[in-house]
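*Target chain*
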Amino acid sequence: MARCTFRHILLPALALGLLSGLAAQGRRGPIQTGPVGDFFRYMSNAPFGEKHIPTVGQIATTQHQITINGQTLSYTARVGMMPIRNATTGVIEGYMNYTYYSKNGVTDKATRPITYLFNGGPGSGSLWLHLGAFGPYRINLEPDGMSRPPYTYSPNPDTLLDQTDLCFIEAMGTGWSRPTEPKYGPDFWGVQNDLAAFGEFIRDFTNQYNLWESPRFLAGESYGTTRAAGLSGYLTDHDMPVTGVFLLSTIIDPEATAGDLRYVNALPTQAMTAWYYHKDSPALQKMTAKQVSDAALQFAGGEYLHDLYLGARMTPAEHAKVLQQLHDFIGLPVSYLDQNDLRINLGQFSTELLRSQHMMTSRLDSRFPGYLENGGAQRTPFDFSEANIENSFPAAFEDYMRNNLHYVNPDIYYVLGGGIGRWPGAYDTVVNLEDAFARNPRMHLMVGMGYYDFATIYGAVEWTLAHMKVSPQVRANNIMTAHFQAGHMVYIDSAALAKLRARMRIFYDKAMAAWTAK
């Protein structure tokens, strides 16, 4: 859930404007004169004459220490607002909020990388990766990712800070980032506009902190992977090559879920969920998670895809065989699979798998079930996995920023969607990533995937990687993948986070070795 945004929740056209001009008249009290909720949501469709002056203030700077693998590391934390100017007019059109952690005592910046991290949505703040995964402090969760009050945080042994400085960026309209006037909002919102805004932020940030020699990494989750892949090409094209890109819960190629690939690439996640709930065949139940995943990927891209292509041209024997195989993998009744022409979407799967228990699975992490309302005739309006985790992060993050980093901002911290408007453009940034590799063959890529993530299904990610237009050398030497027994927000599961950090340690070492090789 990173938020990616829950927000991880990818909305092709995100309309978040408030209803305006409506007055409600009650039987008691004065007539309401303003739009409901205008105290709590940025009005991206407000008249151009209205202004919003973001709270900028001074950069909050604090000193800290953390112990990682037995070594004490001293670092500086800075929280501030970066002005984003129109290159033609010089007008400041908005301020982007960031939190920057840098190791003290570094004398050779060429050996110390900087990683820019962000979440997704579009419309999600970056508190998820910040306090959930890679910052120097991490929210305290149960081992499986469940949150229970009181919501607290503690030093994070899995932080990336021992290998790289960190800059967490809030996209415009998320966190504390705001346009200076509503009319400037659309200049930041949309796939290509967002890339330009982040590219300008990174250029200005590099100037402000004199980081031109520092190797550059990008790390995104969910829609943040759309942004990171796009930025890899955008920055390279603007003379700021990237050393490494990390994608977690990836969505960068709409072709991966087009047509029947929607069902083919969803099948592995359905199979892993059925395996988790012991709904698949006895033979599959005896396998490990990786073995089930490998078998599901092979079946999905082989006989299942072939039979979907054949359709009514299948023989009765072929039809009966694929129905039974599909039942063995995803656990739904053969009759139901037959009625739906072998094609099962997320809504159908999530409501049918646990129907006998009056439960349904979640989208961001299918291991979190919830009560099945109305017999499944209508999907629950919230995601159970998301609802649980969203209770905890904002409260802990606000406390951390105020009391640990001493940053106080009276503006609303928009966790999800409250400050952005419509988001146009195609989510196709795999072409930017391909272009970055073509121009910069030393760049490295790591892609992390959760078995139980229905928001960004890992079968689609595997398909995307297999069809990327890169050289054989890049494919063999520069691309790493890792699968986890977790959902969209891989890092909320403590065992998955430990595995993820171990893989990322290898990734950073390899990327830096390639970057500095003579």
Residues 1-32 have pLDDT under 50 and may be disordered. The first helix runs from residue 127 to 134. The CA atoms of residues 14 and 50 lie 22 Å apart. Residues 259-380 form one domain.
